Amino acid sequence: QSVLTQPPSASGTPGQTITISCSGNTSNIGTNTVNWYRQLPGTAPKLLIYSNNERPSGVPDRFSGSKSGTSASLAISGLQSEDEADYYCAAWDDSLNGLWVFGGGTKLTVL
Amino acid sequence: EVQLVQSGAEVKKPGESLKISCKNSGYTLSNYWVAWVRQMPGRGLEWMGIIYLDGSNIRYSPSFQGQVTITADRSISTVYLQWNSLKASDTAMYYCARHVRDGDNERKLDSWGQGTLVTVSS
């Protein structure tokens, strides 16, 4: 059981916009910023969004993040077949002297 | 360029010991931490622990406290993850990642190693 809650799956067609939600509590998302990671099959996770809505260099502006209270969302616009991957949210949790917590991951299928 | 390069895949028997490594390069090591993350087959990401690169400060997830040991050798910019007695349930991919603190409430795991696959089987 992951500390952060994500839907296990999401799907969309090419060109569509999809969103993936991530729910936490006051000790993690409610206090600290949210990061999103993309994991392609057989590869390491890659930072996609940090500080709720910032994109590292090289990440297309089709990817955007937002946060409100104890929840966050990742939006992907102009969906492409290569976006098919697992997406994870993560946040620092201030309980127990501090620890990272992750969502269970959302498998995105591009139909 | 920030790089975290992990040691290669391992196949071990239950009860054996193991130490895997994560070598860091391309950045100034002071003021950075390195985390270890487990991913069991077909499962999500689990944070195991974190170490300050001079080895002076280590924190473990309650789920992994006492099960693994995290150490660092600052002279060669390398972080280690160690088991004294492996179990079949330790079979997983293990990632190291650089932990960056940008502000009071802003942190990220921004660069990741390629992963080390550990298989424990009799």
Overview of the molecule:
The complex is a heterodimer of chains A (111) and B (122). Chain A is an all-beta fold and 111 residues long. Chain A has strands at 9-12, 18-23, 34-39, 46-49, 63-68, 71-76, 85-93, 99-102, 106-110. The mean pLDDT of chain A is 96. In chain B, 0% of the residues lie in helices and 56% in strands. In chain B, a hairpin with a 5-residue loop joins strand 5 (45-52) and strand 6 (58-60). Chain B is globular, with a radius of gyration of 14 Å. The interface between A and B is medium-sized, with 26 and 25 residues.
Please indicate the percent range of residues of chain B in DSSP E strands (runs of 2 or more).
over 45%
Beginning-to-end CA distance, first to last residue of chain B = 40 Å
Q: Report Rg of chain A.
A: 13 Å
Low-confidence spans of chain B: pLDDT under 50, at least 5 residues?
none
Q: H/E element string of chain A? A: EEEEEEEEE
The SSE string of chain B, one letter per element, is EEEEEEEEEEE
Q: Provide the β-strand percentage band of chain A.
A: over 45%
Largest sheet, strands/sense/barrel of chain B: 7 strands, mixed
Number of helical segments with 4 or more residues of chain A: 0
Features:
heterodimer; A: mainly beta; 3-stranded antiparallel sheet; B: 122 residues; mainly beta; 4-stranded antiparallel sheet; globular
Give me a quick take on this structure.
The complex is a heterodimer of chains A (111) and B (122). By secondary structure, chain A is mainly beta.
Task: Tell me the layout of helices and strands.
The complex is a heterodimer of chains A (111) and B (122).
Chain A: E1 9-12, E2 18-23, E3 34-39, E4 46-49, E5 63-68, E6 71-76, E7 85-93, E8 99-102, E9 106-110
Parallel strand pairs in A: 1-9
Antiparallel strand pairs in A: 2-6, 3-4, 3-7, 5-6, 7-8, 7-9
Chain B: E1 3-6, E2 10-12, E3 18-25, E4 33-39, E5 45-52, E6 58-60, E7 69-73, E8 78-83, E9 92-103, E10 106-112, E11 116-120
Parallel strand pairs in B: 2-11
Antiparallel strand pairs in B: 1-3, 3-8, 4-5, 4-9, 5-6, 7-8, 9-10, 9-11
